[in-house]
Amino acid sequence: MPNCPECAGLMKYDSNRRLYACQRCGLALKRDDLDKMWELQRDRVREEKGKPYEEQRKRKEYLDWWLSEKEK
Description:
Blueprint: E1 11-14, E2 19-22, E3 28-29, H1 31-48, H2 53-67
Antiparallel strand pairs: 1-2, 2-3
């Protein structure tokens, strides 16, 4: 089970509403929204550790381009 991005409590899936609900604070999110919130938190942590997010994004774009099929 995933953890809540707000309070780190356990999130339980509610199949009737198709949402993940935190058992501690009551936050309810769809899986996509939960993933987006975790991604934003990861990005903030990376920025705080000294490597700017923009630099990481440029590197990822470059690697994606390099690994893609190139026209001959």
